[in-house]
Amino acid sequence: MISFKMFNSLHLGKKLIMPATRSLSYVARVREIQKLKEDQAYCEQVFSKTGNYLLYVKGKPLLEKKGINFQPKWIDSNELKVISDKIENDSAALLGLDASGKPQFAISIDNHQDKAAEIEVEKSARFTDLRAGLFLVDVSTAHTLSKGWSLLQWKKTLNFCSKCGSPLVKTLSASQGACSKCTSVYYPQTSPVGIVSICDPSTDQLMLIRQPRYPPGMYSCIAGFLDVGESLEDCVRREAAEEVGIQVDKVTYYGSQHWPFPAGSLMIGCRAEALPGQTPDPCKVELEDARWFTRDQVQEAVDRINRNPNLRVLKNNNPNEIFVPPKGAIAHHLVQRWLDKI
Ligand SMILES: [Zn+2]
């Protein structure tokens, strides 16, 4: 174990010395990441010498298959230099630290996408569609992939001060962007979304909805962005009324998950109870269907996606064979939690 104070002392001089392996406490890890976000010179020094890098092409992270699981294919600084001898500031973002304390960065190589096929062969890995990739990895890795894409997108799209129109100067870590002329500072944003499983205790049924953009057979939970001035409870009650014409009560918080679409969201999972005797009246603009499902039907839908998570990305499923989003999606856990009666 090396303390943060000891570690800090190792890189105060001009020569950067990073221990090959170390075990940092949670607090030391957080403070090291904080330093990388706040000390641009230090971050640049670390970036060029000691990082691990996850490549993205057109938003697709490079993933490798290990056994039955998928994981990021990290490359080191020498491997990165082979791909590009100069990475632009706006093509990089800090992801965090690996288990040994090495910094991890997301790198967009859209400017070198002609090399993508060659990289895939050489690294025995594949640039994977993010919507599919998020369901192929564990929850922690999904957050890493999501963070990388969201920060790279933020760097790519936010270029000018909205107050005076001057160019922004963004940190390498993607923690913030400062106006080059006035005092305005901009930060990557996450939009809060309420997502809710609605049950009817009087009939022991669960409400699931279907949007037109879903693959055939998929049903999920109601979700929507928080309006300005709303609490989470207000949002969930409003979304239930808007989308399915149902009045709900007893809103309880379950957990949250970062989601990279459409542009960085925090999915806040809840459960709510419908007042008795209500029939869904789905909003035709947003929904294709909304129904109450029995426990047997919901269990069947969960079993189906657990047997074949690829249903989430296939286009030719049987529309009558209902399934829910796969593990890795907070909607899946909300549904499973209702099945488990917890
Ligand atoms: Zn400005």
Largest sheet, in brief, is: 6 strands, mixed
CATH topology of the largest domain: Nucleoside Triphosphate Pyrophosphohydrolase
Low-confidence runs (pLDDT<50, min 5 residues)? 1-21
Beta-strand content bin: 25-35%
Radius of gyration: 23 Å
The total domain count is: 2
User: What class do helices, strands and sheet pairing give?
Assistant: alpha+beta
Number of helices: 10
Helix-residue proportion: 25-40%
CATH class call of the largest domain: Alpha Beta
What does this protein structure show overall?
With 342 residues, the chain is of the alpha+beta class. The chain folds into two domains: 4-157, Nucleoside Triphosphate Pyrophosphohydrolase; 191-339, Nucleoside Triphosphate Pyrophosphohydrolase, CATH 3.90.79.10. Helices cover 30% and strands 25% of the residues. The protein has ten helices and 15 strands. The strands form three sheets. Strands 1, 2, 3, 4, 5 and 6 form a six-stranded mixed β-sheet that branches. Strands 10, 11, 12, 13, 14 and 15 form a six-stranded mixed β-sheet that branches. A three-stranded antiparallel β-sheet has the order 7-8-9, with no helix packed on it. Helix 2 packs across helix 3 (40-49) and helix 9 (295-307) crosses helix 10. The longest helix is centred in the middle third of the chain and has 19 residues, at 139-157. It is globular, with a radius of gyration of 23 Å. It starts with a helix and ends with a helix. Residues 1-21 have low confidence and may be disordered. Zinc ion is lined by residues 161, 163-164, 166, 179, 181-182, 184. Zinc ion binds at residues 161, 163-164, 166, 179, 181-182, 184.
